[in-house]
Each structure stands twice: as C-alpha cells, then as structure tokens.
Design brief:
alpha+beta; seven-stranded mixed beta sheet; seven-stranded antiparallel beta sheet; 10 helices; 26 strands; globular
C-alpha cells in the first residue's frame, strides 16, 4: 500500500543524524497507526514490516536521540539508580494523578523515549502460568493460541521463545533453554531464570535486554544500520486523541512535542500500545467523546504484581559458607500462593556476596483499582489512578511473607547468620521500598542481617488489566463498540499470573499483527 498525500506537518527528527529510523513528513492518511513505540508497539510494527504490510506508522511521544538499553548506555550503578530512583532519568514522566499514595506514585511512571520500557527491562521471559491462563478469565481461543497451537503450527509461546533463544546467540539456531533444577531453598526447587539478555560487545560490565529495535539499530552503539522497509516511525509525536465516527475509528489527533503543532492522520485501524495507563486514557476518551458520559468515566481491573523481598550482605567467611552449598546466579521457583520466588547471589568486592530475594505475585483484577478521566473541551483529558489492595491481595501479601521468612531461615543456617523475624510494616506504609536496594544502603547494611523491602503498586512497571480480552476487547483485541480500535500490551491481560508480562506481550503482538495483516 502507498502512503498517500502529505499533510505538511513535520515530526521532529532524532537528534543523532545517523539514525535513519525516523521519517520527517507525516502522511494525511494511512492504513494503521500504532500509538506507542515500546515493546508491544514496536514488536507489532516489526512483524507487520516483515510481512510486507505497508502504510503503517508508529507515533511515539519520546525522542529518539539514544536508542540503547539503559544497562548498555550507563555504568551498572547509574543504570540501577535510574530504575530505582527514576526521577534521575530525564525520560521519566508521570502524566496521571495518583489518588492512593504510595501506590502509582514515587517510582511509578512512563519512560518517554522511543523504545520505552524495552530499554529498561531485565529480560525475564516467563509464560503466564496455567492456573492463571484459564477460562473464564481468558478466552479459550487465546489460551489455545498461546499454549497449544497457533494457525495450525506451534504455539505462540513456543515460537516467541525460539525467536528469543536465537536472538540470545546472535541469530544461530539455538535450542530453547531447558529449565533444569539447579538447587533448592526452603523446600523450593530453583531453576535458572530465563532471560532475553546479551552481554555488551563494547563494555564487559554492561549488557542489554531484547528490544524490537534490534532489527533496525546496533544495540551497543544505538546507531541505525537499516530502516524499516514499509513501516514509518515518528518520535516526539504525542497522540492526544483517537476520534471515531459512526462506531468506527476515523482519525488520530497528535501533537509535535518540540513545536507544539497539532495535526491529524486518518486511519481505519489504530492500535493503542502506549502502556496500560495511557491506553486507558485514550480508550476512555474515544468511548466518551460524544459527551454523554455521566460522572467521571473509568476502567476497573487495574493491577500490578505484588512484590516483596529482602537483601543480605555476606562477608567473605559467610559468603564462602553459603557458596559451599549454593552458587552465584539468578534463579526462580514457583511458590504458593500465585507467586514466583526470585533468588540472586552476586559477587561483591573483597569476597563479599549480595543475596537478593524477592517474591512476585499476582494481584487479581478487581473494582478496588481503576483509571478514571475527567471529560473536558480539550485533549488530552486529565486522568487519575486509584489503586488499593483487596482482601485477596492482603492474604497474598501475608503468605508471601511466610515464604520469605522460610527462605531467610534456610539462608541463615546455610550462611551461619543469626536468624530473626522479618519485619516489613504495612504494605501501604512499608518500612522500606525496593528503592532501598542501592549501593549506599547495601554498604551500610549490617553484614549477615536481612533487610526487608516492599514494592508499592505501580513501581514494578507490570501494570495491566484495564482493557481485558473477552470483555472490554474482542478476542482479536478490538475495542467493543469502536471498530478498528485495538489495544496491545499488558492492558489486555484478563489475568496477569505471577509471570513477568514481556513474553505474553510479545506473543500477543505477533497474534495481533497477523490479524491486521489479514485485514490488509
């Protein structure tokens, strides 16, 4: 398909002139607009480009002046600080108002740069567990596509896992990683954590996780080595609203962030891939743009993973004692209820070892958490986030602390530490957040004593659930009531399970890309 006539509005070119990724002139109309250039949106664009589907544009609100993963672009300590203290990151922004601090405040926000969170994540690729990927929460067709068979071949999970395995070995035909047991802790069987990461070729102490940008740019330098053949990507272009007409998508209203100029692009297909909260705002605006809404429209079901843990600094003698019965590395083990335990042991200078233990579990969608907008005369509408724990969540929090206590008791014996009762404080008012796991806090910790922390909701960057498949969306990820408006990313998960969302996000982006390609 051809792009059609130009509307004369110029999007900001990336600051680095070597980047050939970003085109200059926006079209007046196109087949599809992808809103958001993060993991979901760029994977969708990459697949559409590889399938020969043209006339597709990606609009991202962030700049494209550095396309490297933060753990490649920055030294290890600086990269850690940009994650745990995101206000030190110039790309960090929070466009919503949090109603229930500390949740969705503090470190919760967006990373406004082309690549989005794909340039920050740690590469963990776990599928949603069978106990969560189940009816009636998930549509049967989607479950089968993810786990059993897709379009008469292998399942989506199998295909994406194979793609990532090949990417890890620089394109060779690598076998899928087998999750073989490597040890046990507190009765839980540990396996190596599957992660789509590669070491930097330029800096031995740095690494990067998979990003769809890897097909177009060098992950070590960030420089473009080729442009998309058919899909065009525009940075510094903020989508304000998606207009509908007669129950179908009509046009996208956007703004160049550097000049402030507004413009519109007509399209018959629009995919919201700007993150759960921005997706929620845009969907609510489209559903209520006729002004008939009563009160403040909202989408319920917002959830994030519930995460708690502790870290332990071991001096040389205790470290040697622990490593005599365990090993360095990053491992995980499923645990009850609805959680995964992550155990990481890292070598520190002078023979010391840092042990980082966390339990990440599923917050079930409920009416306790939602996103709401205030309709106005101009776009974007202001929106707010309300996040609270239900009775079920409170039970999960208590059970996770029981697991962590058992792990600490086991570690104390193995490392020759004095056992103690772990204290976390109330989840809504914790003694410490995971921002405490910074070098200065670790260095100041008493050797051999566990230091607890809890993540506030929203801090994990795993939020989802406001546009679930099968209810708000059709099985093809199309918003019910607005033909041609689709959504991608964790917002579409009816249940999140305990797994990190990236693998499922990638799989569903492939599924949606195939559907859009068929329509084209």
């Amino acid at each position: 398909m051809s792009g059609g006539s130009r509307n004369g509005v110029t999007a900001q070119r990336a600051h680095d002139s070597r980047l050939l990724l970003v085109d200059r002139d926006l079209p007046a109309h196109c087949y599809a607009v992808v809103v958001g250039g993060g993991l979901a949106g760029l994977e969708l664009a990459k697949v559409l480009d590889s399938r020969g589907i043209g006339d597709v544009i990606v609009l991202d609100a962030g700049p494209a002046d550095d396309l490297r993963h933060v753990n490649t672009a920055e030294p290890p300590e600086a990269a850690l600080r940009m994650w745990l203290e995101p206000h030190s990151d110039p790309s960090f922004t929070r466009p919503w108002t949090p109603l229930t601090p500390p949740h969705f405040t503090l470190g919760a926000g967006l990373r406004r740069r082309l690549g989005g969170r794909s340039l920050y994540w740690y590469g963990v690729t776990l599928p949603i567990e069978p106990w969560a990927l189940t009816e009636p929460w998930w549509p049967a067709e989607v479950i089968a596509d993810l786990r059993e068979s897709w379009r008469g071949g292998e399942s989506l999970y199998t295909r994406v896992e194979r793609n990532l395995a090949a990417w890890r070995t620089a394109g060779s035909e690598a076998a899928q990683t087998e999750l073989l047991p490597v040890g046990e802790i507190a009765g839980l069987t540990l396996r190596a954590t599957p992660a789509a990461i590669r070491p930097s070729a330029l800096n031995p102490d740095r690494w990067y996780a998979y990003s769809p940008l890897d097909v177009w740019r060098d992950p070590d330098t960030g420089e473009s080595h080729r442009s998309p053949e058919r899909v065009r990507i525009y940075s510094d272009t903020e989508v304000l609203h998606v207009h509908s007409r007669n129950g179908a998508v009509h046009r996208v209203l956007a703004r160049c962030r550097t000049s402030g100029t507004q413009f519109s692009v007509k399209a018959s297909h629009v995919v919201l891939a700007a993150g759960t909260l921005e997706n929620s705002r845009l969907a609510l605006q489209t559903l209520n743009e006729d002004g008939s809404a009563v009160g403040e429209p909202r989408l319920s079901g917002l959830n994030d993973h519930i995460v708690q843990g502790f870290f332990l600094r071991l001096g040389r003698l205790r470290a040697e004692q622990l490593l005599a019965v365990s090993r360095l590395g990053n491992y995980f083990a499923p645990c009850e209820p609805r959680s995964n335990l992550f155990y990481e042991a890292v070598q520190l200078p002078e023979g010391e070892v840092l042990v980082d233990v966390r339990v990440s579990g599923e917050q079930l969608p409920s009416s306790h958490s939602h996103v709401e907008v205030t309709p106005g005369s101009q776009y974007p509408w202001a929106y707010r986030v309300h996040a609270a724990t239900s009775a079920d969540d409170r039970s999960l929090i208590a059970a996770q602390r029981t697991v962590l206590q058992a792990v600490w008791d086991d570690l104390a014996v193995k490392a020759g530490c004095r056992g103690s009762l772990l204290e976390f404080g109330d989840f809504d008012n914790p003694l410490r957040t995971n921002a405490h796991v910074l070098p200065e806090a670790i260095g100041a910790a008493v050797e051999g004593e566990a230091v607890t922390w809890s993540s506030s909701l929203g801090f994990e960057d795993h939020e989802g659930g406001t546009l679930p498949l099968g209810t708000v969306l059709t099985e093809q990820q199309e918003l019910k009531g607005v033909q041609g408006l689709f959504a991608a990313g964790p917002a579409v998960f009816p249940r999140a399970g305990a797994a990190n969302p990236a693998l499922t996000t990638l799989a569903l982006s492939h599924r949606l890309a195939a559907h859009l390609a068929d329509s084209a």
